[in-house]
Known about the structure:
- By secondary structure, the protein is mainly alpha-helical.
- It folds into 2 domains: about 130 residues, no CATH class; about 200 residues, no CATH class.
- Helices cover about 55% and strands about 5% of the residues.
- It is built from 19 helices and 5 strands.
- The strands form 2 sheets. Strands 1-2-3 form a 3-stranded antiparallel sheet, with no helix packed on it. It has a two-stranded antiparallel sheet with strand order 4-5.
- About 0% of the residues have low confidence.
- It binds zinc ion.
- The site of zinc ion has 7 residues, from loops.
Amino acid sequence: MSVIEMPEWVMNELNKIVHDFIWEGKGVKIAQKTLVARKQEGGLKLIDLETKKLAIRIKTVKKYMEGRWEFGWREFLKKYIDDVGRMGEYGWYMGFKQSMTVGMPDIYREVMEAWRQVKDIIYEVIPGFLRNNCIYDSVCELDGMESRVKVNNIYERIKASLPSKWVNVIEKSCVKKKQQDLPEMYIMKDGEKYNIKSISVKKVYDLFIMDQIKVPASEKVWSRVFEDLDVKKIWSNMDIKYNTIECENNDFLIRHNRIYTNVVLNKINNNNNVMCDVCNTDHETFLHYFLECNELKDFFVFLKSLLKKNCFDDVNLKERWRKIFLFGVFQKKTAIDFWFINYVLSHARLAVVLRRNYAHFEGRKVKIKDFFKAIMTRDIEMCCKYGGDDVKDFFVTGNKFIKEGERKEVLYNW
Ligand SMILES: [Zn+2]
């Protein structure tokens, strides 16, 4: 079998290792079920081990359905299916209960348990009439009707009342397969139909993870703070070409509202001063930290003029500055202007965080404008140095800010 059974404690240990790696052991900050989402939904596309395991178990059922006899386990599974359902391989089509698999070896129990979990989104196309057992099972599931004889009688009566022509069509002209062939099975999800025999493990995983994903908790906060913000969009422009990991990580934490402001720290430990370490005039809330701090005013004037020089219109900058500063602009990544704006702002946000940390941890005040310039030039020059001429071309094309000098050096129009 493709994957051996994985005890619960191994699963827990693996999850812990992944979490500790991401959060450096400082405890979970963003829900694991959010991190498994795709990046454009605010996640990191982290693998959810439980769901992955489920998908692999479903693959076992798929192999079974394919009728590939080279797998020795197939005979065992067939026997267990019969034990559970008492109707041979048709047992796959009934909705069995968890208790029915008690006493089976773990690996078979897991396969059947995975199957039980997906059963409600699977439907089957069976040529000809369903066996009485399947009908009985379906009716009981819906109705809790108990008497097998009663159900069978009703089924027979329905069949008998059908015009003989119909019966003929159903019994004979339906793509009647060999007796031992199992019905076609499909997974039905959001209006899409997937044949169980051709579906990949990845697809099964993708289908199931959709139900697991938890919407980022910060979305609620941003919708409250910024009335006309299309909050789902904030995850769409995180991937900025040639951006550094440091900036990306910072943007990720900002968008998830996972910034340790003094107000947050004060809630954890009330010895922590709530005031802004940089300007000392107000409480350091998230909005103060990134937008309202007195010591940011000049920096924002400088930033706006920098963006304006590169074809960003004035109206947008005045009216939507708070949103633009925090989340950037959402246009297509191919538009070079928008790349430029997002690249600049991502560095500006990092500069804001770093200058705050200098003040908070070291009691040092840095000149944010110079600090920002230093980070930007460092990152652009690093990219050009190691990325070669193509990268350099990318940086100097389409904006008036970055130029190439006579000695092929990078020049900036601050
Ligand atoms: Zn301040």
